[in-house]
């Protein structure tokens, strides 16, 4: 399991009802079921990953964050997880709203567009930054809604979500020591991880 | 109730089917009462001591109970013998598999060929209309008879999937897992239209005799054959037809009329024509026209949402059943969009749903064919569900 998935798993208590939006190969839901006894389900956009997950006995359905969350009833889950996908959805604000409607908590990870390397590249070259995290050129990237950690915090404030926990991590998901300063986290954190609840 | 062996002796050779017979019969949704009720079935594998490893497989419109053994009528392998058997995705080393012939069918279950006790004659064209709920109700009697409280799973493709959904809607506590494949929660207007053309072909046959063809020692073979030919097109896809037959032409003439030396409009035959004719002619040897009408009508009536003021999630409210919905990308008879509609309604009901659309160019028929992703999905879903149900391999032995 990736380190950032491990961090997500640590936020989720035993027996919780979990929906993993963008469940990939199903590693996280498999882990939550086996080690925490969670009722963990997945939604995945890539059909090969869906088939692979179902073939492993995992409850995963083909679908995506933009179109399928709206069909769940209120409070269907304790935790709704969105891993490294927020920047690629059509309507991030609506996806967040749906996550916190169908779930009591939302766990969101996204790549931080405020990282110093991106800022420096844009400043010095005048062109769209390319890094190992942001690795596709502007004309073919699926990441149509990049945001920075401060952008995300501002949206949470605007929409009245409570940030219960947040972390900035490096690319491998290792926790980085900028907890006390959002500005530093926004400069040095490559990935951000948030645990939100309704206001 | 006794476990008798009945025979359908009406036409051709005698076949004995394993049958449950219920003298008191059952009431139908239409108000009629069918007595006695017979349900012919096959089983595979062994029922566990705790009776918790039973899988009911529901067949499609023209299927039968010969799921995983040679069909006594046609001599062909069971219709899903590639899916059901020892070590196969529906593993009979582990699960006890039951496959009943549907009510209204013609392979031993009560249907138009059965004797109507009131008249002392076969029902033939007078067989009462049945619904998917009636078909499931007859299967409930069989499951009761076999002493099974809760089915581990109900599995079915096409009309079999309609039965699987009806099982959960009518008896959610008796189905741990449901696997509806290439199906829909309602029969679409297009599908009703196709069925209607099939039926009109049968009605137009001079041997139809208002459904009493057997009194005349005849069968509406032309009509039923045409019905099957047309239906068969809907089971395939344009891509599959092109790949299998293309525009290839056979040498023999397309008409029975001996071709003179003069040029003829049907002097040669496309391979696709020959194939369809073969499908039509083999079908009429094994299937009864009245059964075809009865069952297609039951499909037409099928609409789970309509029974709940248009709310498709209502019949699945609070059900604990685990679902795996499967569709095929080239299936235009039961398209993915209808499966997705079902999945979203199940999500709304809070049900545990897996949903896979399998990439295939073979159309609706894909669920019967060699599709490795289907095998993987069925095996994985059943194994996962078995783990959640607390089934162990030892229990099944």
List the helices and strands and how they pair.
The complex is a heterodimer of chains A (199) and B (397).
Chain A (H helix, E strand, L loop, with lengths): L2 H9 L5 E5 L5 H10 L2 E6 L2 H9 L4 E3 L2 H4 L8 E7 L8 H11 E9 L4 H10 L23 H11 L1 E9 L12 H7 L2 E8 L1
Parallel strand pairs in A: 1-2, 1-4, 2-3, 4-5
Antiparallel strand pairs in A: 5-7, 6-7
Chain B lengths: L4 E4 L6 E8 L3 E2 L5 E2 L2 E8 L9 E5 L25 E2 L4 E2 L4 E5 L14 E2 L4 E2 L9 H14 L5 E7 L1 H12 L4 E7 L7 H15 L17 H15 L2 H7 L4 E2 L18 E2 H16 L2 H13 L20 E7 L7 H13 L3 E7 L13 H18 L3 H4 L1
Parallel strand pairs in B: 6-9, 6-12, 7-8, 12-13, 13-16, 16-17
Antiparallel strand pairs in B: 1-2, 2-5, 3-4, 5-9, 10-11, 14-15
Helix pairs in contact in B: 1-2, 3-4, 3-7, 4-6
Give an overview of the whole structure.
The complex is a heterodimer of chains A (199) and B (397). The longest helix of chain A has 11 residues, at 92-102. Chain A has helices at residues 3-11, 27-36, 47-55, 65-68, 92-102, 116-125, 149-159, 182-188; strands spanning 17-21, 39-44, 60-62, 77-83, 103-111, 161-169, 191-198. Chain A has one domain (3-198): Vaccinia Virus protein VP39 (Rossmann fold). A 7-stranded mixed β-sheet of chain A has the order 3-2-1-4-5-7-6, with helices on both faces. Chain A has 8 helices and 7 strands. In chain A, β4, α5 (92-102) and β5 (103-111) form a beta-alpha-beta unit. Chain A starts with a helix and ends with a strand. Chain A is α/β, with parallel strands linked by helices and 199 residues long. With 397 residues, chain B is α/β, with parallel strands linked by helices. Chain B folds into 2 domains: 5-189 and 306-396, Rossmann fold, CATH 3.40.50; 192-295, Rna Polymerase Sigma Factor, Chain: A (Orthogonal Bundle), CATH 1.10.1740.110. Chain B has helices at residues 132-145, 159-170, 189-203, 221-235, 238-244, 271-286, 289-301, 336-348, 372-389, 393-396, and strands spanning 5-8, 15-22, 26-27, 33-34, 37-44, 54-58, 84-85, 90-91, 96-100, 115-116, 121-122, 151-157, 175-181, 249-250, 269-270, 322-328, 352-358. In chain B, α1 crosses α2 and α4 crosses α6. The chains are: A alpha/beta (199), B alpha/beta (397). The interface between A and B is medium-sized, with 21 and 27 residues.
